[in-house]
Design goal:
This protein is an alpha/beta fold. 29% of the residues lie in helices and 32% in strands. Helix 3 links the parallel strand 10 and strand 11. Helix 4 packs across helix 5. The longest helix has 13 residues. It is globular, with a radius of gyration of 19 Å. The two termini are 27 Å apart. This is Transporter substrate-binding domain-containing protein. It comes from Cupriavidus campinensis.
Length: 250
């Protein structure tokens, strides 16, 4: 029994892994954000990263299922799950109120989230309270990315923080380096990896040091967000979700 639709051109990759013969397994499709190094990315047709490694650790305990990963932009990943076109999203933070269309798995990973800013933009400023101490600055954020938190988005609605939305996080980091925006929010490891990638793509090395970690704001747990709408017509997903939670707790 298969729980996925045929691969579409919009996805960067369709990748499989399995521990037992395919004919004995049920396939689950999960979407993950493309280019989220070092957490989740595709390289030579193979999914890699900390999210993948930790999910694989759990999947080894539930061999009756096989997982297929597709990569797309974060906004598209979330939208496919919302519309019931995928079984779920690999790599969401726990946001049941903001994303009621997802059932969140047990956490399989945790990571520190920080604010990084252009050094010149924050020269002479000190930061103790997030996000209030960042009022007056311009932030870049991916569409649908909720890590900055409810208070941040409230300040953005009030005009106390300027918000520039984009699809690709690397593009936002580049804008931060050249001071088109002032700050970004993401796990520090992701920001540092983006800086390395941009340098490899031709950004002068000196530009990398324009980035400064202004404040570590919280630790987030990482989950699979299972599509409620998809599960309505694919009840096998409920069994996978139950088994994944049991295995994640072991």
């Amino acid at each position: 029994m298969h729980l996925f639709r045929p691969c579409r051109i919009l996805f960067a990759a369709c990748v499989f892994w399995a521990a037992v013969p395919a004919q004995a397994q049920t396939t689950i499709v999960l979407y993950s954000e493309a280019g989220q190094r070092p957490q989740s990315y595709e390289e030579n047709g193979i999914p890699k990263g900390a999210y993948i490694d930790n999910v694989n650790r759990v999947l080894k305990r539930i061999p009756e299922f096989k997982v297929q990963i597709r990569f797309a932009s974060w906004a598209r990943v979330v939208e496919e799950a919302r519309n019931g076109n995928s079984a779920g999203v690999l790599g969401v933070y726990y946001r049941p109120r903001e994303r009621p269309y997802l059932n969140h798995s047990r956490p399989f990973y945790s990571e520190e989230v920080a604010v990084h800013c252009n050094r010149d933009s924050i020269e002479g400023r000190t930061f103790h309270r997030y996000p209030d101490d960042f009022a007056g600055l311009k932030f870049g954020n991916q569409r649908g990315y909720l890590a900055p938190g409810p208070r941040f988005f409230q300040l953005a609605r009030e005009g106390k923080i300027q918000l520039v939305e984009g699809h690709e996080f690397h593009d936002l980091v580049k804008k931060m380096l050249v001071q088109e925006i002032d700050c970004v929010v993401n796990p520090t490891v992701v920001i540092n990896e983006a800086l390395v990638t941009l340098e490899a793509q031709g950004i002068p090395e000196r530009m990398r040091y324009k980035s400064r970690r202004a404040m570590t704001i919280k630790t987030e747990t990482v989950h699979i967000g299972f599509s409620r709408k998809y599960e309505e017509s694919h009840p096998e997903l409920a069994r996978f979700r139950q088994l994944f939670d049991q295995a994640a707790d072991q």
